[in-house]
Amino acid sequence: MSEHVDVLIVGAGISGISAAHHVLRAFPNRSCAVLEARDSLGGTWDLFRYPGVRSDSDMHTLGYRFRPWSLPESIAPGGAIRDYLGDTAARSGVTDRIRLRHKVSRAEWSSGDNRWVVHAEHDGEPVVLTCDFLHLCAGYYRYDRGYRPDFPGLEDFGGKVVHPQQWPDDLDCAGKRVVVIGSGATAITLLPALAPSAGHVTMLQRSPSYVASLPNDDRLARALRRVGGHGLVRWRNIALSSGLYHLSRRAPGLVKRLLLKDVARRLPANYPVREHFAPRYDPWDQRLCIAPDGDLFTAISSGRASVVTDRITRFTRTGIELGSGRELPADVVVTATGLNLLPLGGIDLVVDGEPVSLPDKLVYRGTMLSDVPNLVFTVGYTNASWTLKADLVSEFLVRVLRHMAEHGYRRCAPHTDNAGMPTRPLLDFSAGYVLRSVHEFPRAGAEGPWKPVKGYLPDIVSLRHRPVADGALVFTA
């Protein structure tokens, strides 16, 4: 036995809630369901519970366009984001459509029936649903396990080793020597969060990241919101982040000097800024890390936290031996070493009996797969808030569904006759977690709607305003 819905959404995080909201608002008489593998909605913001977890984008753009962020924090704690998502889902009528503990493993398309057959597991029991259109909102990384390198001697360490993705509820770092391995957004969040109670916190990095300080209490945003200027705040922040990104591409040396100058201003005199905060790559070759109100530098200046830039030789019983010969003592080691990527939530796709090989597929308008019918997926920006892309993809899905209804179409799939088109990685980003797994993802093309769009403003044109029937998206009655 199987249940049929018009639109099936996989994932109840930022993207899935956006998708369900847009579908329900546009088609109140159509059936829609959201399958979520975990036991709560919220996705990333329900999964990560490490100390200090917070947004890595400003909340005026990470919040939904259809429901503006109203709290004073511009960089918000994870709990506040979780509450915001839950409240948004409830207000939009999405909560009643979410089915928790439904892990999707396989989706099979039948052209004879013009529908997907979706296989899931709920509390150990198999579940089968069919749908006319499938929207995958499961993100692009593994929820059950983060990335941890093979550290020599790890089994010899006498202390506690944890990964932020599986932070234990009972872990007490008070008075202990904590070493956080990593230099990304998670490590830069953990350092100031643990410093007030730990004996000492050290961020051990192989190479630095760029860190920008932003005010957490945006007074101009507060003033504008009081007079109903939510849209103005959102567009101002979009313009500022987009402007910084493009300036970084065009004048990386200038942006690097400005970032390092600000870091030096916030740290004690003669602090080795270049050693610990000047990466070998240019700004925005990897994602820029945010320190609200410069909290990272305040923790370092207080003496309760420090940064060490060195290589790990091996773990010892009492700490970590470094390439310089120094041993870094530790009671707790946090491996903030990144994510394991997982394209389309690890779901196996089959079209008319043939398994879909993702690396052989081209991505259309950043949201559909070549020759895969009635399917869209959401992968957000690497240089801006994830939600900006999620909302645009949801709007595009609604436009496609309306076009199909108006013309009596049952099926649509992107197609190109240019079999020799040059391709490039979908995630054109030099972060380690991307480079490790990008070969498993579908690819972008070199022309037309297959070419990757870099930025929110061009995507507005592509997904919100360009005709749905553009010749590359083929509709079938």
UniProtKB/TrEMBL annotation:
Query: One Pfam family from the UniProt entry?
Result: NAD_binding_8
Q: Keywords, A to Z?
A: FAD, Flavoprotein, Monooxygenase, NADP, Oxidoreductase
Claim: Calcium is one of the keywords in the record: no
Q: Which GO terms describe its molecular function?
A: flavin adenine dinucleotide binding; N,N-dimethylaniline monooxygenase activity; NADP binding
Cofactor requirements of the protein = FAD
Transmembrane segments in this chain: where? Answer: none
Q: Which InterPro entries match?
A: FAD-binding_MO, FAD/NAD-bd_sf, Flavin_mOase-like
Which protein family is it in? Belongs to the FAD-binding monooxygenase family.
Q: Which PANTHER family match?
A: MONOOXYGENASE, PUTATIVE (AFU_ORTHOLOGUE AFUA_8G02570)-RELATED (PTHR43872:SF1)
- What is the protein's name according to its record? FAD dependent oxidoreductase
- Organism name: Actinosynnema mirum (strain ATCC 29888 / DSM 43827 / JCM 3225 / NBRC 14064 / NCIMB 13271 / NRRL B-12336 / IMRU 3971 / 101)
